[in-house]
Amino acid sequence: MAEIEKKAAVDRSDDIQDATPNVTEVETVDAATEEAAVEAIEAPVERGEPILQVRNLVKHFPLTQGILFKRQIGAVKAVDGISFDLYQGETLGIVGESGCGKSTVAKLLMTLETATAGEVFYKGQDITRLSGRALRAVRRNIQMVFQDPYTSLNPRMTVGDIIGEPYEIHPEVAPKGDRRRKVQELLDVVGLNPEYINRYPHQFSGGQRQRIGIARGLALNPEIIICDEPVSALDVSVQAQVINLMEKLQDEFNLSYVFIAHDLSIVRHISDRVGVMYLGKMAEIGTDTEIYDHPTHPYTQALLSAVPVPDPESREGRERIILAGDVPSPANPPSGCRFRTRCWKAEDRCSKEVPLLAVPERFAGSDTPAAHESACHFAEEKDVVHA
Amino acid sequence: MTRLLDVQDLRVEFRTRDGVAEALGGVSYAVDAGRTLAVLGESGSGKSVSAQAVMGILDSPPASVTGGQVLFHGRDLLTMSPRERRSVRGAAMAMIFQDALSALNPVLTVGAQLAEMYEVHRGTSRKDARARAVELMDRVRIPAAKARVDDYPHQFSGGMRQRIMIAMAIALEPELIIADEPTTALDVTVQAQVMDLLDELRREYAMGLILITHDLGVVADVADSIAVMYAGRIMETAPVQELYRRPAHPYTRGLLDSIPRVDHQGKELYAIKGLPPSLLSVPTGCPFHPRCPRAQEICRTERPPLYEVPDVTDTAAPGRASACHFWKDELDA
After folding, report:
1. By the number of CB atoms within 10 A of the CB, which of A77, A277, B156, B168 ranks highest?
2. What's the domain count of chain A?
3. Do B244 and A236 touch (CB under 8 A)?
């Protein structure tokens, strides 16, 4: 028993070292007072400047044993040291298979979960440490659109109440008398009839419900919208409508999106940059062309090669990388590189040394599209999506 | 030549509190031994109902088959006695469901569920049946089959559970397998593993495979021919290359244009306007006309039959048909 506890302790200290240090330094803002903090949060950000900077973010969920005396016997390492920047006006796609931690990242960015370690800087302020009015101001500016349009809308509330509810918490955005008009404007913006304001969610189809969810996300004029699988519950023809709407809204309201999804085709379509996650870590990150046409991480290559392409002509020509086995448990991830147990390139080094997320040395300095950050000791370019 | 399975003008209705829903309004498709037919459609298009009607596992009431034929080797399954039908269903045709966790019995070990197939249908002894179960698990490449035969469904991962479903389906070496969205709940790398396995088994046992799906990518990867459904009707049937190269129905074209592609960065997606109709009130004429860019007066009044469509060389392609009055224009577009 003592051994188990010791092991858990060792595990924990390991993880913090696992973090990825190769990112630009954050220009932090030290706000002495709450007023100063709120002021910094309300300050506008130039297009193309970083608006959200995530550094070494870690979230471990404790695994406990025993009823009366709960002891921690380990941890599910849902997110284990990831770093990335979100620039104003862009869409950052995050892809990965189930259990890779992408939804936990969404919750951490929303401050719905408390990070175990690491920082999330919003305009230079670490939101994991904010509280009170400053935190509320951040939450107004970062909104979320959920996956399931059937469970994320309260069935007992009218559409008007659902979309207008954010104003109860942030009355400064819309004074009471003005709310109904605001909600109707929002319905119009997302392509629903403003007269539907008194209807209930069950009177709408899945696609329409997702539009309601988007209208609610827009209600407080946020700067960032975190979308967690926003179209995966929708049919193909409706999915295209919602994606087009989201792209239109981004231009219209100058929004930055973090777009989390498992469908690689949709992520490519909507994203400017894409990060690929595997077992709580970022495997590779770059622009959409860099990731999709010039992937260098074996996991990205396997993932992309497994995506069925709707073109029977390329059926024979494309190389398929079929991975063996399943994703290991995040409670007990492999040492070294997390992907090594399923990787065809794995060597001794991969089990000992954690590969850092950085531009691989062989590509450093060159301006090929392969020169983007990839966490692999043996990074090598390989096109897998074209026949 | 008699087809392995030939569904003709199949009609199914559901009686609901709000009226009669016409889930299938005359559906015809066929599949031969060793071939893969994909039945493609969005939710509510009737693709799963058609499969359930073929298997004879519709919940009735509320559902009832009101017309048509389901010919298996030329014999109509719908007119068979229940006993006769059950013997065909168990041994000669099998089904794979989308959600393996709810399709498997949670309180029985997977070994027991696999062995049951042999005990019930073949009268195999318990011991032999268990050995066959291990063989089957090996066959669908479940690692350490011998050690895992006594595990319960919840102890397996999603991909492994779907493999067990496949093992159950192939246990009696059926001639036809109907797979209803077999990989929809799985991650893409696991989906590729499972589709690969299914395709390999089909080839090995020369089975006919009906793949029911909404995913145009999966279809392009494995199907020989394809039937596109909308609002309980067939819109278009075609060999798979033909359909992707030159669709002969505006709905098919709309679907193909509305999916983003992983192999190139797209512009704005084409979106089919509006929503699929309620099956309680399917539009008159062509069910797709309220959403169709080509719709004319005739589309509102007259239901298009399945027109035979010639292939590129202008000879009648076997099985190529489109339920659009203007299929010629669409083909040349």
Report:
1. A77
2. 2
3. no
On whether residue A291 sits in a domain, the answer given is no
Tell me: do A126 and A169 sit in the same domain: yes
Confidence of residue A222 (pLDDT cuts 50, 70, 90): very high
Host domain of residue A365: 300-311+318-374
Amino acid at A65: Q
Cα separation, B42 vs B250, whole angstroms: 15
Tell me the C-alpha distance between A92 and B319, whole Å.
45
Give the side-chain half-sphere CA count within 13 A for A57.
Answer: 31
Task: Give the pLDDT score at A384.
Answer: 84
Which residues numbered 228-257 in B keep a CB inside 8 Å of some CB on A? Answer: 240-241, 244-245, 254-256
pLDDT in tens, A54-85: 999 999 999 888 888 888 888 899 999 999 99
Architecture label for domain B3-102+174-332: 3-Layer(aba) Sandwich (3.40)
Q: How many Cβ contacts (< 8 angstroms) between chains A and B? A: 133
Per-domain residue ranges for chain B? Answer: 3-102+174-332
Does one domain contain both A35 and A107? yes
Q: What is the CATH number of the domain that holds A245?
A: 3.40.50.300
At A178-204, the pLDDT tens digits run: 899 999 999 999 999 999 999 999 988
In this complex, the residue of B160, B254, B259 whose CB is nearest that of residue A265 is B259
Tokens of B171: 């246990």
The partner residue sitting opposite A266, judged by closest CB among B191, B216, B260, is: B260
SS3 B177: strand
Instruction: Write the DSSP string, B130-141.
Output: HHHHHHHHHHTT
| Whole-prediction pTM | 0.86
Dihedral of the CA atoms A78, B156, B183, A61 (nearest 10)?
-10
- What is the three-state SS of A106-156? HHHHCCCCCCCEEEEEECCEEHHHCCHHHHHHHHHHEEEECCCCCCCCCCC
Q: Distances from the Cα of A6 to the Cαs of A11, A117, A329, B129, in angstroms?
A: 9, 21, 20, 46
